[in-house]
Structure formats: C-alpha cells, structure tokens
Amino acid sequence: MTITDEDCLSETLAFNAQFEAAAAGRPARGRAPDAAVLAHLRRNRLGGDTPPVRLAHGRDRTVAGGVRVRVFVPEQVTGVYLHIHGGGWVFGSADGQDERLWGLAEQARLAVVSIDYRLAPEHPFPAGPDDCEAAASWLVEHAASEFGTERLLIGGESAGAHLAVLTLLRLRDRHGLTGAFRAANLRYGVYDLSMTPSQRNFGPRRLLSNTDSLQGSYELFTPGAGEEGRRSPEISPLFADLTRLPPARIVVGTEDPLLDDSLFLAARWRAAGGRAHLGVVAGAMHGFTLFPLTATEREVRRERDFLAAA
C-alpha cells in the first residue's frame, strides 16, 4: 500500500470541511429519493449544481443489442479504454465526464468507450451488469475493426469500478475470456454490498457518500436481496474467485467509507495470484476526483500514466 499526497493533506481536509458545510443546501441522497431529487441528481454532475459539459468530440452510439455508449477517438490510438461511470448505479451517465474522458483519450492515446448502462431503480440488478458485459463482449470482438487495436483496458469510478470487476468476472466465467483486457483501473470502488467495517462505521457525515447513502444505493440496486443475498459473488466481487484477472490499479482515499473495500480487494487480488497496486490518497473523500484539488491533478496524471503503459 502506498499513501500518496500527504504534502497536500491540509488542502484536501479543508475542502472536505467546506463540502460538508455546504451539503445542507443540497438534496440528500437518501434511501428512496423522490422524483424531483432523483431528476436533479441525474441532471447535474454528482456533487455539483450545474449540468456537465458535452463536448463535440464525443459520439453517441448504440452497440451490442441496444447498449448505448459514448466514444472519444483521438488522432492517435494505441488502445481502447472501456470506461464505466459511477453514481451508485442510480445516477451518472456516459456524457457526465466529457472533458476528463477527452483529456484522457488525447494524453494516453486511447479510444475511450464509456457505457451508458441502465440505472436503478427503474432497472435494478442485473440490468447494469448485463449492459456492461454486452459492451465488453462487443469490444472484444470489434475493437480491431473499429479502432485498429486489440489492446483493451477497463475501469471506472465507485459503482463503475464495481461494474468493471463484475464485467471481468463475467467475461471469464460466462465467455471463457481471460487476458482480453490487459489492465483494470479501479477508483474508490464498492466491492462488498453487504457492507465492510469502514462502510458501517463511517456514519452520517455529509460528504459525497456516507453509511446511509450507501445503504440506500444498495436497496435501490438490489431490492429485496438483503444483507446475505448481497454477499453473492455475482453482486459483491469481494466474495468471488479472483484468479486469472489482469493487473489492477486500485485507488481510494482515507476519508472514504469504501476504504476497506479497496484494502480488502487488493489483498484478495494478490492472494489469487494477480498483480494489484494499491494507492491510498491522504485525506481524500469518496469521489474526490470530481473536484479541483491538487490530489485530483496528481491522480489524473497517475491514471493517465498507468493506462498509457499498461
């Protein structure tokens, strides 16, 4: 484990305090948000108050039996990054991070394919994982003809990191595909929907995620499953067989209720014979890369370098 960005800890913690103080004026992400709150949170970027910017560089497409994706293709392409957005399986969209994804595409020379998977509560489990599996299978088959390369990478943030791991497991177990994706980029993911100790103990702090908002997301994503049901390896990859998975880069902040998820996943990934680099960002809350922090700038560079070299 590597603790990073300790030299800017005071800036990161000060931002957390400001965010928490301002959270009283934002719609709460409760267990069952009403229609108005749900619409607001889906319209605006998580943690923000304005809709995200859509760039002309992005192309909306439909692939693999109706799955929607947003594609960014730079002039030079040396690989394809299958990106899965976060948002607790309830919020977020493939066009919610155009500026970041286009920057990554240009700087790492990657075609970026971001999946607009179906969201809960209208489309609970397994709809989202099904869409990610379908898009990944399509990319394995068509990357060479579409983008001129078979070098594939996968990753995402939060719920997107969870879906990225589930997708790798489904490709292995349902399609016999191992090695198709060369690396996994996993930012502050959730890997145990029955709740790790850090999730349970985080409490009500009004940062981007807390104990109650996580529990609410699980109930919307897997209605009626219950705590024991959510321990199924098909839902919580921390309980899955993690053999024959690609090298992973796993990142989380020390002030994230999902801290244990990344610590435990990295340990199990390595125990299963895989390579996992674990980076823990000092003072960072869940979703910190959405915000203008020194730690964010550094994390963006680390992500780019990892994906460019993988």
Task: Characterize the structure shown.
Helix 3 links the parallel strand 4 and strand 5 (110-115). Helix 4 (127-147) packs across helix 5. It contains 10 helices and 9 strands. The protein is globular. A 9-stranded mixed beta sheet has the order 1-9-8-7-6-4-5-3-2, with helices on both faces. The protein is of the alpha/beta class. The longest helix is centred in the middle third of the chain and has 21 residues, at 127-147.
Summarize the structure.
With 310 residues, the chain is α/β, with parallel strands linked by helices. The protein has helices spanning 9-22, 35-43, 98-108, 127-147, 159-175, 197-202, 211-221, 226-229, 259-271, 294-309; strands at 2-4, 59-63, 67-72, 79-84, 110-115, 152-157, 181-187, 248-255, 276-285.
